[in-house]
Fold this sequence. Notes:
By secondary structure, the chain is α/β, with parallel strands linked by helices. The protein is built from ten helices and nine strands. About 45% of the residues lie in helices and about 15% in strands.
Amino acid sequence: MSSSSSSSSSSSLLPQPLKVGIVGFGTFGQFLAKTMIKQGHTIRATSRTDHSHLCHQLGVSFFRDALSFLEADNDVILISTSILSLSEVLRSMPLHCLNRRTLFVDVLSVKEHPRNVLLQVLPEVMDVLCTHPMFGPESGKNGWKDLPFVYEKVRVRDEPRCSSFLQIFESEGCRMVEMSCEEHDKLAARSQFLSHAIGRILSEMGIESTSMNTKSFETLVKLKESTTNDSFDLFSGLFIHNRFAQQELMNLEHSFEMVKQRLRKRTGEEQNLSKV
Ligand code: NAP
C-alpha cells in the first residue's frame, strides 16, 4: 500500500477536461458528477431509471439507450451501479460496439468483484482502474479534503489519461491510497462492513436519541443513521461480494457470545457472594 499526500504540487493544478460517461446515475453517481461538472468535465449518463429531467438541470446528457451511450466518444466510462447489479448491467451492454480505447473505472465499495467482472466482460484493449472513494454524499458534503480515495491500476496502458482521471480526486484534496483490490476487501470487511453491520443491528433495535445522551450513545445514533441512509442493496453487496465479510460476521457473533458469557459468569459470582 502506498499513500501520496494531497498537498503534492500537482494537486493544485486543474484536471484536464475529460468526457466521462457514468453508468448508474443513482445517489453516488450524481454526487460524483456534480464535482466533475464543477471542474469542467463533460458528463454523460445512462441508468435503469429515466434520470433525464435531473440530467437536464445538471447539464448532463442522458442516454436511455446503452448503444448511443457507448458511441458517445467517452474518454472514461465510470461504473456506479449497485454492487449486486454490476454483472447484469455490464453484460447487458453491447461493449463490443465500443469504437475507441476507453478507461473503465468502477467506484464500487468492494473491489475484487468488479475487477474480476471488468476483466471478464471488457475487450482486452480497454484500460481498467478499480477505485473506492471512501466517502459519500453525507461525509463529503463539505468537500473531499483529506478523505481517502483507494485505487488499483488493474490494467492501465494510457497513463496520462489515468492520471487525468485521478487528478479529479487529487485536486479536491483527497488522500490518494494505492492498494490492491484484495487488500482493500480485507481491510474494508474489518472496517466498513463491520460498521454497517453494527449500524443495521442498532437500527433493528430501534435506538433513538434521548434527552440524556452520552457522547458514546450519540456516536451510536449517528452510526445507525449514516449506515441506514445507504441502500440495503449496498449493505448486501458489501457482504455478498466481499469474500472476507463472512468471517467478520462470524467474529462479531463469536465476540457477542464471549461478552454475554463473561457477563453471565460475573452475575453468577455476584449471586454466590451475596449468599455467603
Ligand atoms: P446503490 O443502491 O448501491 O446503487 C444505485 C445505483 O445502482 C443506481 O444508479 C441504480 O440505477 C443502479 N441499480 C440498482 N439495481 C439495478 C438493476 N437491477 N439494474 C440496473 N441498475 C441498477 O446506491 P449508490 O449509493 O448510488 O451507490 C452506487 C455505487 O457506488 C455502489 O456500487 C456503491 O458501493 C458505491 N459507493 C457508494 C458510496 C455512497 O456513499 N453511497 C460511496 C462509495 C462507493 P437507477 O438509478 O437507474 O435506479
